[in-house]
Amino acid sequence: MGGIGHWVGMILLENLWALAGLLIAIELVLVLAWSQRRTWGTALAAWIGLALIPTGLLLSVMVETRRENVEEFCQGLARAVDEGEVETIAAHLAEDFHSDGFDRGSFLEIVEQSLTRFRVDQPRLHDIEIVFQTDASATVALTVKCQVRSADVFYDRLPTRWRLNLRRSGESWRVVRIEAIPIPPLNLRELNRL
User: Fold this and answer.
1) Measured in whole angstroms, how far is the alpha carbon of residue 135 from the centre of its chain?
2) Nearest 5 degrees, angle CA 79-CA 96-CA 172?
3) Which of 48, 62, 95, 139 shows its CA 20 to 30 Å from the CA of 29?
């Protein structure tokens, strides 16, 4: 999933812990080189390496990549479902939204009816896979685990899997299509082998 550029970008801009580990490892190599040679050049390199640690971490925190932007969009949609805010959910959908034969209006009616009947709490996003077709379009596949309750049912950490087709509209993303992805049933016999 992605070439070396993807991994370099992910380490430098999206994964703070990986970047910190990389910068500290580089600094340890530079300090080791200085301790062996004790030259002006190796001392300067060690000091520059030391200065790069906070600079690199600060830069990583300040820069938001498009992948992080899409993840934040998905988190915002999950928060809207958690709060039962149909208007906010609607704001996440494109005007030409369609899904399984439903247009935007009929889909929002179903969402409102479902959120009236069921209470969705604590949605957590997992296994997020983002593929960018262009700078203005992306497909996101993700698993959502949440509590679902009504007067007669309660599910704790109910897993569901979704595919969202997104389109960039100005500075924000909009959902063009949502598709439920089947999750294979849990095979308890496989668990017994562990």
Assistant:
1) 17
2) 45
3) 62
